[in-house]
Amino acid sequence: MSNRQTCLGISEDVVLLGAPATASAKQWEQMCMVVGGRIINGYYSIDWLLRLLYRTMDVQFTIAGTGPVQSKTETKILNFNLLHIIKGHLDYSRKLTEVLEAVRIKVSAFKRIK
Q: Are 23 and 62 in contact (CB under 8 A)?
């Protein structure tokens, strides 16, 4: 999408939590062209499950879901180590409200329908 003029800035904000994606700076810089706002990388630095699964599928050794994404040119990329909230890969869904608040995403209260 980054190669198409009509897609530049098409998304406002992107939140990736425990993403099984490469941490290649070049690919993230291409993503920045498509995103108009922030790109949030929420990671758990000792996510052994993600490391194990991703390494069996690919030869990548750097995974966005287990560490910060580095870019020398992009300021839109924000990295959040969620070690203080997440204790395992499955905690992202269990503690979603806490995680979203930690990565500075406004969470409004909602009423559950029974």
A: yes
User: What's the token pair of residue 3?
Assistant: 């190669």
57 burial class (0-12, 13-18, 19+ CB within 10 angstroms)? exposed
Query: For the segment 47-91, what is each residue's pLDDT rounded down to a tens digit?
Result: 877 777 766 555 555 678 888 888 877 789 999 999 999 998 889
Using the structure block, give the residue that is written with the tokens 């098409």. 10
Distance CA 74, CA 97 (A): 27
Label residue 19 by pLDDT band (50, 70, 90).
confident
CB neighbour class for 98 (10 Å; exposed up to 12, middle 13-18, buried from 19): middle
Predicted structure pTM score: 0.78
Closest CA to 62 of 83, 84, 47, 82: 47
Q: From 8, 14, 6, select the one nearest 76 (Cα to Cα).
A: 14
State how far the Cα of 23 lies from the Cα of 9, in Å rounded to an integer: 21
